[in-house]
């Protein structure tokens, strides 16, 4: 069975969690190269992208995923609610081939 690549992504300091919505496969990936600093949880876009790539690869290892029109739902991000930080996250996800990024962070 081929499933669409539809991911929930939560970003924490130097760690990401990725869940595939169709299979509920869950990956908790620590950063090999830190992407957070004291001012921003997403200070280094290249290292953030590397960490997300590692997590997504772990999900894809089982096969059966369509890479046509992949989508990411950002469901949590510790401290990256500003436009500049969102742009870093979106560029990192675009670098992975994610076509659509949906922000689903509860901003109470």
Could you give a short description of this structure?
This protein is an alpha/beta fold. It is built from two helices and five strands, in the order βββαβαβ. The longest helix is centred in the middle third of the chain and has 16 residues.
Low-confidence stretches: none
- Binned, the helix content reads 25-40%
Average pLDDT score: 91
Summarize the helix and strand pattern as letters: EEEHEHE
End-to-end gap: 39 Å
Which term fits the overall shape? globular
- Number of beta-strand segments: 5
Main sheet record: 5 strands, mixed
Please tag this protein with its features.
108 residues, 5 strands, 27% helix
Task: Describe this entry's structure for a reader.
With 108 residues, this protein is of the alpha/beta class. It is 27% helix and 35% strand. The chain is built from two helices and five strands. A five-stranded mixed β-sheet has the order 3-2-1-4-5, covered by helices on one side. A hairpin with a 2-residue loop joins strand 1 and strand 2 (15-20). It is globular. It starts with a strand and ends in a 5-residue tail after the last strand.
Topology:
Layout: E1 3-12, E2 15-20, E3 26-30, H1 45-60, E4 65-77, H2 83-95, E5 100-103
Parallel strand pairs: 1-4, 4-5
Antiparallel strand pairs: 1-2, 2-3
Helix pairs in contact: 1-2
């Amino acid at each position: 069975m081929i499933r669409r690549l539809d991911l929930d992504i939560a970003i924490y300091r130097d760690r990401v969690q990725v869940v595939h919505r169709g299979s509920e496969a869950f990956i908790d990936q620590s950063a090999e190269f830190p992407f957070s600093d004291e001012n921003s949880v997403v200070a280094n876009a290249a290292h953030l992208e590397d960490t997300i790539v590692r997590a997504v690869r772990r999900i894809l290892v089982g096969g059966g995923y369509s890479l046509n029109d992949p989508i990411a739902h950002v469901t949590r991000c510790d401290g990256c609610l500003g436009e500049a930080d969102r742009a870093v996250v979106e560029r990192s996800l675009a670098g992975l081939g994610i076509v659509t990024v949906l922000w689903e962070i509860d901003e109470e």
